[in-house]
Fold this protein.
Amino acid sequence: MAKKRRKIVAFSLLAVVILMLLVSKIIFFDFVKVKGSSNLTEYNKNSLLVVQKNKTPDFADILLIETPINKNQKIIRCIAKPGDEFEIINSEIFINNQPILETFVTIKKYRVNCFNSSATDKLLNHYKLSEEENILGVYNLNLTKKMADSLLKDSLIMIKPIIVEAGLGNDSIFPQSFKYRWNEDNFGQLTIPYKGFSIELNDKNYSLYKNTIYLFEGKIIEKNQTGDVLINGNITSNYIFENDYYFVMNDDRTNFNDSRKWGIIPTTIIKGVVITSL
């Protein structure tokens, strides 16, 4: 009888533990498996991530979001927070007019030139490249800074970053407007709104915030024939945001399927902050 009672107690405790885990998953945590290639250098395909729900994101946090375009889940890096002034100058990130120290590993595009066949063979073998990937002996490679610095030590290899010049607008880059000739390496300056933040709706910033106000704030925003801005049919010169917003980027900076393409994202599509992997 005592042995049977111990079994019942053990099963009861196990059931309580399982129930607590299920409740914590529903309320506090989620578990996400990385599918396909990751654009974050810290995690690889099939990594199982623990995501804390309802946690306020901070700079460099890895977020689980629902992408604003196709509503797929994606893990991505938080770069700028509500109230920040964000800018990219020659692929370097500036927050509030100050360059930031990126404590995480990023991948950028470099042009690599080998001056003899020995250096070429070394490059091909090390990075598992084929001869067809070069143009007149020059390779365009996606490298971390550590990898680039390693190549710089070879006197028979010349390497330099590939940066899209300021003013050479990319039509795929936010805000997709001829008034802003931004690209993946030179972007902004852009103010990241916070809840209660007020902006003047003028001809200059209409293109920057119209999609945000429409898609994430649920307001119909348009211009009339005389150039006045209307929100829900009423002429207005100011708007007060109802959500906090963030700017997010891939660690692989050669892939600009992030806020450089979508624009800022609201807290409503942020599902949580990654706190560890299993």
Remarks:
- The helical segments are 2-27, 117-127, 145-152, 206-215, 259-262.
- The mean pLDDT is 86.
- Residues 107-161 form one domain.
